[in-house]
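User
Class, as today's exercise, I want you to study this protein, comparing sequence with C-alpha cells, and judge whether sequence predicts the C-alpha cells.
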Amino acid sequence: MKKIQFFAMLALIIAFASACGKKGPTGPSFEDLIQEGWDAFAQKDYQTASQKFTDAKAMDAKKIDAYVGLGWSLFKLGQLDQASVEFAKGASESEPTADLYAGWAFTLNAMKQYSLSNVRADQALDLAPNWQFPYGLPLAARNLHVLKAENYFLIGDFQKALQEVQILNPAFTADVNTNDGLAALAQEIETLRAGSTG
C-alpha cells in the first residue's frame, strides 16, 4: 500500500515538474504585436510600428491586421511603393477593411495615381460612410472626401471635384467652366484640406 502511495506521489511530482518545466509561447502573440504596433504608430514611432507589424505578418500572413498596420506605417515613412504592395496583399485576404482602403487611397494620392486613389477612397467610404481612423491621426471620412476632390481636380474632372466639395460645404458654388470658377474651386479644396490635416 505504501508503495502505491509512493508511486502515486512520485507520478504527481513528475507531472508537476514537467508542467512547470514546459515553456509557454516565447515572445508576444500576434494580437500583442498588432497592439504594440498601433501603440507605436499613435506615438508617431513609425519605424517601430513597421517592425511590429512585420513581425506579426511573419507570425500569421493570413490575417489582414498586419497588412493594414504595415501599409499605414510604410506610408508615414514615405515608402510609398512598399506601402501600396502591403495594402494590395491585405486586400487579397478575406474581408478588407475601411482602414486598409483609406490608407491605400492616401498612399496612391501621394504616388500621383489619382484615379485609383479615388477607387480606394470609394471602397473605404462604401464600407464605412462615417469612417474614422482610430490610431492617433485625426483622419475621418471628411478627409477622404477632400482627397477625392483633390484627385478629381488634378485629373481635370472639375464637376466631380465640385460635388465632393459640396458634400463638405453645401453652400459653396463655382462655375467650373470659367477660370475664376476653377480658381475658386482650387482655393476651396485647399481651405478644406488645411482644415482637415492629419
